[in-house]
Amino acid sequence: MSAVATLRRSRRGGQPASRRLRPWYENRSLVAGLIIVGIMVLLAVLAPLISPDNPLHQNLDQALQGPSGSHWLGTDKLGRDVLSRLLYGARVDLKIGFLAVLIPFVVGSVLGAIAGYYGGWVDIIIMRVVDVFYAFPLYLLVIALVFVMGSGERSIYLAIALVSWVSYCKIVRGEVIVARRQEYVQAARLGGLKNLRVLARHVGPNVVSQAITYAMSDIIMDIMVIVTLGYLGLGITPPTAEWGSMISDAQEFITTLWWMAVLPGVAVVITGLGLSLIGDGLGDLMSPERRR
Amino acid sequence: MRIVQAVPVAFGVTVVVFLLVHLIPGNPAESILGAQATPARVAALSKQMGLDESLPQQYLHFLDNIAHGNLGQSYTYQTSVLSLVLQRVPVTLLLVLYSVVLMLIISVPLSAWAASRPGGARDHAVRVVPLVGLGMPQFWVGVMLLLVFAVGFKWFPVGGYGQTFSQHLWYLFLPALTLAISVSPVIIRSLRSSMLNVLESDYVATARSKGAGGWSLFSGHVLRNAVIPAVSIVGVNVGYLVGGTLVIEQVFAIPGLGSLLIGSIQARDFPSVQAVALFVAVFVVAVGVLTDIVYTLLDPRVDLTRRGDV
Amino acid sequence: MPTDTPSTPVLSVQHLSLGIRRSEGHWDPLVRDVSFEVPAGVRYGLVGESGSGKSMTLKAIAGLLPRGVEVMEGQAWLGGEDLLSMPAARRRQIMGPRLSMIFQEPMTALNPTMRVGAQIAEGPRRHLGLSKKAAMDLAVQMIARTGIPDPVRRARAFPHELSGGLRQRVMIAMALSCQPTLVLCDEPTTALDVTVQDQVLRLLATLCEDMGSALVFVTHDLAVISQTCSRLSVMYGGQIMEEGSVRDVYRAPLHPYTEALFESAPDFDDPARMLKPIPGLPPSLTHPLPGCAFAPRCRHAVEACTTSAKQLAPVAGGRLSACDRVHEIFEVNA
Amino acid sequence: SGGASGGTSGTNADVGTPVQGGNLVVARAQDAKSMNNILTFDNTSIFTFEQMLQPLFTVTPDGKGTTPLLAKGYTISADKMTYTIQLKPGIKFSTGTEMTSADVKFSIDQDTKYASTGWGYINSSIKQVSAPSKYVVVVTLKHPWAPLIADLALFSNAVVPNNYGGKTMDAFYQAPVGTGPFKWGEWKRGQYLKLLANPNYWQKGYPHLQSVTFNVVPDSNTRKLQVQGGQADVDEYPDWSTFQSVGSPTVSATAFPSTELDYVAFNEAKKPFQDIHVRRAISAMIDRQAIVKAVLFNHGTAANSLLMPGVPFYQKSTPGIMKDAALAKSELAQSSVPNGFSTTLLIPSGDASKMTTAQIIQSDLKPYNINVTIKQLDPTANHNAQQNMQYEMGLSAWTMDIPDPDEWTSFAVDPAGGAKSAYTNYSSPTAIKLNREAEQTVDPTKRAALYNQLQDVTAHDAPLAYLYYAPFAYGVSKKVHRFEVTPLGNYPLADVWKSK
Amino acid sequence: MSINSGVNEALRVEDVTKQYGSRRNILRALDGVSLELQRGEILGLVGESGSGKSTLAKIIAGGTRQTSGRVLSDGSEIGIRRNAGEHRRIQMVFQDPYSSLNPRLTVRSTLAEVLRVHKIVPRDQIDKEVSRLMGLVGLDDSALDAYPGQFSGGQRQRIAIARALAVRPEVLVADEPVSALDVSVQATILDLFRSLRTELGLSVLFIAHNLAVVQHLVDRIAVMYLGRIVEVAPVQALFADPQHPYTKALIASVPRMRPVDLERAPAIEGEPPSPIHLPEGCRFNPRCAHAQSSCLDTDPALQPAGAPDHLAACLFAGALQPRSIAATKESA
Ligand SMILES: Nc1ncnc2c1ncn2[C@@H]1O[C@H](COP(=O)(O)OP(=O)(O)OP(=O)(O)O)[C@@H](O)[C@H]1O
Ligand SMILES: Nc1ncnc2c1ncn2[C@@H]1O[C@H](COP(=O)(O)OP(=O)(O)OP(=O)(O)O)[C@@H](O)[C@H]1O
Ligand SMILES: [Mg+2]
Ligand SMILES: [Mg+2]
Ligand code: NI
C-alpha cells in the first residue's frame, strides 16, 4: 500500500545535487583486476617470444626436476619445461575461458531478457526450461555430455554452453524485471519506442553488468570444469599445454612433487582473482546507484 | 506455488535424463555390451531396452517404468539400479548436509566479522582470500587436507565411510570440509553483503535507539534478517555441492551417488547413470522447494501463495 | 510538566560539526558549527531543504551516524552528559529511557521479522527491568494509547501486516515506551498521506505533552513545523541560518533564506500568492564557499557576503540569525 | 623368474611364526563386478573370487607351470586324447559338504556351456567330461591339446558344488561357495567386499587371516595415503610415478614379475598399416627406454618379443625391433608413405601411463613427419573401437591368465581366434601354422622350437610394436607377510599373515 | 455523465476499471472511472495513496491495459495496442526524476532518440530541435552532453519534461512531478507547466498529493478514493464548498502555515480499507462521520451537486453540514 508512497518521497534529495561520476580508473578493484588479467593476456600473447622452451619439447633425461637455473619452474614427467607450458597454457585456457563463456553469455542473456521483459507465457516456459537444467549440477551434466559426445575441445565447449546459459538467463531475467519497473524504461515505452529498441538500448546496457560480473567468475568455473574433466580423464587432448591438464597430470605427484600441481593452480587462482576483481569493479562502476 | 512449478520441472528432468542416453551416437545396446557384443545379444538387448520402438514411445515406457519404481538393471552389478541408488543416497545426502553445516560454520562468523568493518583490512581479507579457494580444484584441496590432517596429524581416516553413524561423521569430516571450502567464497560474499544491508538498515538503527547493542543486537535483529537471503543462496548452491560430490567421493573413496555415477559412466552402465542423474535432479528440485518453505517460515512477509510476482 | 527551569535545557548542542574524513586532517564537512538548545517539554523544529544536514545532526545526537561520517567537534549535552563523547555502554543505557528516536520510514524502521509488540517491549525490558510478561503488557498499553483499535491482536502482528499510519503509531509507541525526556523525530510523517499525517502529528504532540517529553522534529515542510513546534531552526548548507519561535519566524523571517523558503512554499490558505522559486543550486557541501552559504542564491547578497564566514548571532527578542545584513534587510522589531 | 626386473621381488616374507587372525585390508581402485567365475572378465573380480573358488590345478609360483591343487595327479592316454584326473579325497566346500567328481564335472561342463559369452572357449578342445568314480574325473578331447592342464588351472574351471547346490546360477553367485581358504562374507557394492576365513578349508592350519576386506578407493593418492596411514594393508596398483614414494618405514613398494606386455597395435585394415615397412619403421622410431623410464620409472624392461619373460617358451634373443634411426629411415623410404602421413593413436581415457606413452610416441614419430593425434575414448568405447577396427593405431596390453603361451598367441596371431589377431587384421600363414602346430604339440622341446619360430616371425612382421614388459606394482604394509603376486597377477592369500 | 460535449475535449476516459491479481484476490485499483480533459486545461487529480491515481495515469498513457472501459483521444478510441502516433498524442512525466532518465544516455541522445524514432523533424534538424526543447524547459544547451547523474532533481525533471514534449503531444500526464523535489525548485516546475499550457495549449492531467500545490496550478480538481472519483469541480468551487465528506476531510487535514488547535480531533478517523475487500455500499462509509444506514447499501454515483460542473459521489452531497474551510481561515 504505502510502499508506493514510501518510494515516492524517500528519494527526495537522496543524492547530492550534482554527483561527480567517478572515472573508471579511480576504481581500485577494476584497475587491479585489469592489471592482473592484462599481464596474463600479455604473457599469453607473448608466450612464443618469452617462453624459454618449446612447451611440447620432451627431454626424458630431465624429467621431473625441481626448479633450477635452466628450468625456472622445473620440468614435468616428460621433461618438458613447466614455465613454458604455463605460458602457453595461458593461451589455451584464456581462449577456452572466454569462448566457453561467450555463447552461454549471449544465449542466456538474450533469453533472460526476453523472459523478463515480456513476462507471461514466454517467461513461464523459458523459466521452466531453466529450472530443468538448473536441477542438474553443472559437473554432472558436463561430465555426462562430454562422455556422450566424446572428449575434446569441441565437446567441452558444447557441453558447457548447453549447461551454463541458464545462469545468465536467470541473472539477466531478474535484472530486467527490476529494470522494467524503472521509470526510464516505462518512459521509453510510453515514448512509443519499439520493444526491441527499448530492450536493446534502455534495458540491456543497464542490466548487463550483473551478467558480466558473473561471467568473470564463470570463466574460472569453466577452467575448473576443464581441470576436473582432466582429473576424470576427459580433458583437453594432449600434448597441448593447458593448466587443467597440467594439474590433472600432476595429480599423481601431489604427495611428492606438489609444486607441479600448485603452479598451474596458482595461475588459475591469479587469473581468477583478476577476473573477479574486474567483476567487482565493473559491478561498482556500471551500477552507480548500487553503493557497496 | 513452487510445488506446482516443480511438476513440469520434474517432467523436464525425466526428458533430459532420457535423452542423455538416447542421444548417444550408435546403438546404445552395442556400446553397453562392449566386449561381449554378438549380433544376437545386441538384438536381444535392443529389444529388452525397447530400442525398436519410436523415441516418444520409448519415453513413455521410460516414464511408466519410473512410475513403477523400475529404473532398470545395472549392467555392471547385475542388480536392480534402484536398490543400488537407494544404498548410495543416504551417503551423499549425509555428505551434502554435513558440508552445508560446515559451510555455515565457516561462513557465518567470517562474513559477520567482515561486515562489522566494511572497507577495512579484515573485510578485504575475507573477500579476497576465499577467491583463492575458488581457483583450487576440489580434488587438489581434498588430497592436501588428507595429507595434512589424515596422514600428518592422523586426526582423520584417509578416506572411506565407516560403519556406524559416529564413524560416518568422523570419516566424512574432511570431504565435507573440502566441499564447504569450495562453496564458502560464494556464500561468504553474499552473506556479507546481506549482513551489510541489514546492518545499514533503518530497523537496526531503531534497535540501537532502543539501547540494543553487541550480541543482543546481532542475535535479535541482525542474524535472522541476514539469514533469510542466505537461505536461498544456500539453496541455489546445493546443486553445486551435489556436483562437487562427484569428484570428492572419488578422492575420499566414499560410496555415494557420485562415485556410482563416475563408475557407471566409465563402464557405460547407462541405467545407473540415468538413475543417478534422475535422483540428483529430483533432489535438487526438492531442495529448491524446501528452501522456499524455509524461507517462508523465516520471513513472515512472504506468503507462499504469492511468490514469483514480487 | 517539565521540572527543569528554562535555563537548563534538556538538550544543548554546542558547535557541532560533522564531516567525512578523506585523509588525515582533511574533512568534507556536512554540518558546520551547529548550536541550539531545546528547553524541557518543548517541541523544537529543524527545517531546511534536502541535504541541509538535518538528519545528520539528529543522527549525531542519537549516536547513529552512518559509517564514514564522524563528529569533528562539538558537544551535545543531555542532562549534564555529553552524548557525543559518551562511551557506547553508557549510551546504550540512555537510549530508550532518556532519549529515543522515530524514523522517517515506518516500513523499514521496524524489524520485519519481529512482532510489533515484542519490538515495543524490547526497550522496557532492557531499561525498566520488566519481566517479559510485564513488558508485553506495557507494549499493549502503549499501542492502545496511540489509538490503535484492538491492541492485543495488533501487538501480535508483523510490521508488514499494518498500514503505514499504524506502523508509524507503533514507532511512536516504541519511542515513548520508556518515557524519554527527549524524542528525536526525522520526518516522521513524510511517507504518510495527509489525512494520516494529520492524525499522527496530533497523536505525537499529545503523547509528548502527556509524558513531558521534549521533541526535536526534523522536516522539510514548513507547514508541518507550524502545526507541531513552538521553536525552530532553519538549516541551509549544513549550518543554522535562523533560530527563533515559530510564531516570530513565520510572521517575519530574519534571514534571506528563510524568507525565500517561505516565498517558494505554497500556502494553502493563500492560493493567490505567486510562488517564487529560489534561483540557483543548493550548495556543495564538499566544496564550501568561504562566505555565507546562501550568498550565491541570495537576492540581497553583496560582495562582503561571499568572503567572510557568518555566525549565528542574536538579533532581538531571543531570535538569532546568521545574516550579517539582517538589520539592513529586515525591519527588526524587538 | 623372467625378465621383469627393477623393484624388489617378493615381500618381507618369511620372518617369524605366522600370527593367526586379523583382517587384511586391500585398497583397490575399482570394485569387483561379479563373482561369476565363468562370465566375468575383469581382474578385480577374478582376484577376489579366486580366494574362494579353486580349480583342479594351479599355477606354480614362477607362473610358468602348473601343479595339482584339488587334483592329486593325472595320467594321459597314449593318443594324448584322454586325461584321467584323480582328486584329493576329503576336500570340503566351505559349507562342509565334501567335493566329489560330480562337482568337478558340473563345473567344467558349466564353463564349457557358456563358451560364447564367457571363458568357456578355453575348453573348446574338450569333447566330454565324465565322473566314473567319486574321486576320478576323465576328460576326453577332440584332438590332442597341449595346454589342457593349464586350461583346467583357469579360474573359470574352478570347482563349485554340483548343480549350484540347488540354486540358480544368479542366486549362487550372490554368495558363491567353493573349496578355497576364504568364504563369502558380505559385499557393499562400491564400498567394500569382505571374505571370511573358511573353517572347513582342506589345508589344515590355513588360512592365517580371519578375514580379508577389499575396499574401493578410486584415487591413487588416497590409496597410497591409506597404506601409509595404516588404514589399509595393501595398495593395489599404485601409480608408477609415485611408486617409490609409496615405500616408507611402514610400507614396502613391491614390483612383482608379471606377464604384462604393453604394445602398439596397428590396424592393417587401414592404410598405410597394411604396409609392413610402415609398421617396421614406426617400431624402429619408438624409444622404448624412454617409455620405460617415463612410465615405469625404470621398473620394467623394453619388450622384444610377442611373449613375455614370465611365460613359458619366452625367447630372450628374439630380434624384436628396438629404436633404430637408420632402420626407421630405410624402412620408411621403402614404404608407401616415404614422406610421412597423419594418423591417430587411440587410448582409453583416464589412464595416465598410456597417456604418457602416447605423448612420447607422438613426439618420437614427429621428426619423421608422421603426425599423430592422440584420441581418447572412455575405456568401454575404446574397447569397442578396437573390436570394430575403428582405429588406426592403438595402445593395449595383455596379461596371461593361464601359464601357457597359447592363450595369448592364438589371440594375437590367429585371425580365426575371434579377435582378428589382437584386432590388427594381421594374417600371416606362417604364423598361423606355427601357432596351430604348437597348440597340438605336447613335447616341450618341440613346442619351444615352434614358439621360437613364431616369436621370430612376428618380430619381423611387426603387427604389434612391442613396448615394454611391466611388473605388477603393489604397496604392502610391512606388517603383512608372505604376500605374493604370481606373474598372472593373482595373489593367493591362504598363507598370508599379519603381525600385530 | 459529462457536461461538456466532445468538441473541446482533448481526452476522455469512460468507465475504466482496472483489476490486479487473480481469482481469489481481486484488487480493484480502478472501479469505473470516467473523466474528461479539456483542451488547454490542467486537471488536478488528488487522493489517498493507493486510490488508483498512478494506475489511471498509466492507462491513459498506454503503460498498462485497463480491464474494461475506453480511453478516447480527440473523440476517437485509442486501442489497447497503440501505434507510434497514438503514443505521441499522450505523453507521461514521472514522479521520480532520479529513475525516470536512463543513466547511461546523455541528455542529447535521450532527446534525439525520440525525435528520430518518431521522425518529428528531418534528421539534419535534430540538433536544432533538441536545443529548442531545452529552451522550452528552461535549460541551457551546455547541458546536452552531460549524463543525468550530473543534474539536480529539478533539472532532471525538466529533462524528463523535455523528452515528453519532444514528440509534440496534445496531452501530458504528470504523475506527481513535484513530489520528489524540494520546495525551492518545486515552484519552477509548476511555473513550467503553467507556461507550457499557455504557450503550447497543452492539456495536462496533473497528479499530486499536496493540495496546496494543486490549488496553485490547476483549473479543475478530481478527488479519488479507493479506485473511484468521488468529486470533480473547478478548483475554487471545490475548496470553497467541498461536497463529499472525504474531500472535506482531506482539506481539513492539510497542514497550514498558521498554528492550529492540536487538541481538536483529527478530521478523519481510521485508515483506508483494503482495496481487495471493499466495503458494501459507499466505499467511504466506514470512515465517514455522516454515514447513514442508506450509505451501507447504496454505492453512490457521481452526480451534479450544487453547480452543473460540480460533481460528487455522495448520497448527501449538498445536504451536509458545511464544515467550511472558511471557518478555519478566519480563525487563523
Ligand atoms: N552515509 C553518508 N555518507 C556520506 N555522506 C552522507 C551520507 N548520508 C548523507 N550524506 C550527505 O550528508 C549531507 C546531509 O545529509 P542529511 O541526510 O543530513 O540531509 P537532510 O537535511 O536530512 O536531507 P533530507 O531532507 O533529504 O533528509 C547530504 O549532502 C548527504 O549527501
Ligand atoms: N502492478 C501492480 N500489481 C498489483 N497491484 C498494483 C499494481 N500497481 C498498483 N497496484 C495497486 O493498485 C492500487 C492503486 O495503486 P496506484 O499506484 O494507482 O495508487 P496511487 O493513487 O498512485 O498511490 P500513490 O499516491 O501512493 O502513488 C494500490 O492498492 C496498489 O497497491
Ligand atoms: Mg533527512
Ligand atoms: Mg502513484
Ligand atoms: Ni586378461
Automatic annotation (TrEMBL), chain A:
Coiled coil region boundaries: none
UniProt-listed SUPFAM superfamilies: MetI-like
Subcellular locations according to the entry: Cell membrane
A Pfam family the protein falls into: BPD_transp_1
Record GO cellular component, one term: plasma membrane
Topology with respect to the bilayer: Multi-pass membrane protein
InterPro entries recorded: BP-dependent_transpt_permease (IPR050366), MetI-like (IPR000515), MetI-like_sf (IPR035906), OppC_N (IPR025966)
Domain annotation ABC transmembrane type-1: ranges: 90-279
Segments passing through the bilayer: 29-50, 96-120, 132-150, 156-172, 219-237, 257-282
Keywords, sorted A to Z: Cell membrane, Membrane, Transmembrane, Transmembrane helix, Transport
Keyword Transmembrane helix applies: yes
UniProt GO BP: transmembrane transport
Keyword Transport: yes
Annotated CDD domains: TM_PBP2
Sequence similarity: Belongs to the binding-protein-dependent transport system permease family.
Protein name, as recorded: Peptide/nickel transport system permease protein
Organism: Allobranchiibius huperziae
Phylogenetic placement of the source organism: Bacteria, Bacillati, Actinomycetota, Actinomycetes, Micrococcales
Automatic annotation (TrEMBL), chain B:
Membrane-crossing residue ranges in chain numbering: 7-24, 91-116, 128-156, 168-188, 226-253, 273-298
InterPro entries: BPD_transp_1_N, MetI-like, MetI-like_sf
Gene Ontology molecular function: dipeptide transmembrane transporter activity
Membrane topology: Multi-pass membrane protein
Family affiliation: Belongs to the binding-protein-dependent transport system permease family.
Record PANTHER family: DIPEPTIDE TRANSPORT SYSTEM PERMEASE PROTEIN DPPB-RELATED
Name listed for the protein in its UniProt record: Peptide/nickel transport system permease protein
Annotated source species: Allobranchiibius huperziae
UniProtKB/TrEMBL annotation, chain C:
Start and end residues of each ABC transporter domain: 11-262
Gene Ontology BP annotations: peptide transport
Compartments it resides in: Cell membrane
Keyword terms: ATP-binding, Cell membrane, Membrane, Nucleotide-binding, Transport
GO MF term (any one): ATP hydrolysis activity
Gene Ontology cellular-component terms listed: plasma membrane
Annotated membrane topology: Peripheral membrane protein
Highest taxon of source: Bacteria
UniProt family annotation: Belongs to the ABC transporter superfamily.
Protein name: Oligopeptide/dipeptide ABC transporter ATP-binding protein
TrEMBL record, chain E:
GO molecular function terms listed in the Swiss-Prot or TrEMBL record: ATP binding; ATP hydrolysis activity
Domain of life of the native organism: Bacteria
Keyword Cell division: no
Example GO biological process: peptide transport
tRNA processing keyword on record: no
CDD domains associated with the record: ABC_NikE_OppD_transporters (cd03257)
Gene3D superfamilies given in the database record: P-loop containing nucleotide triphosphate hydrolases (3.40.50.300)
Domain ABC transporter per the UniProt entry, residue ranges: 11-251
Record key words, sorted: ATP-binding, Nucleotide-binding, Transport
InterPro entries: AAA+_ATPase, ABC_transp_ATP-bind, ABC_transporter-like_ATP-bd, ABC_transporter-like_CS, Oligopep_ABC_C, P-loop_NTPase
Family: Belongs to the ABC transporter superfamily.
The protein's name: Oligopeptide/dipeptide ABC transporter ATP-binding protein
Organism of origin: Allobranchiibius huperziae
Phylogenetic lineage: Bacteria, Bacillati, Actinomycetota, Actinomycetes, Micrococcales
